């Protein structure tokens, strides 16, 4: 009996290892981690971390420190309130959260429902449709080059 139980635990460990490997392969490494994103957004906000935690509904201000260090995970139900307090797009924060914690599910959602789009991306798409007269323009190399230059200028202060 003991050997069977041990074998079962070993099989469970192998299954978990395979899932972690699959998740790592599914993760979009161009997106920041929750830790990095949260750290940067808290810095950019200029607000005291204690106040951010309180306004987002955390029972303890230390929770944000633990998340930033990787000692705790950001609870899913805190993504939207935290995004609102930090002034960031909740859809983008959710995308980062899923990519970091559950990349397999993010890929499944995006394959089923389409890619996550932020409010800024929706605005850009709406402008492209308007500027093109809703003609569904093709994205050729010249257009890619022009758009890349425009976006690089837009990102500069």
TrEMBL record:
Gene3D superfamilies: lambda repressor-like DNA-binding domains (1.10.260.40). PROSITE patterns: HTH_CROC1 (PS50943). It comes from the Bacteria. GO terms for molecular function: DNA binding. Signal peptide: none annotated. Residues 49-93 form the HTH cro/C1-type domain. This is HTH cro/C1-type domain-containing protein.
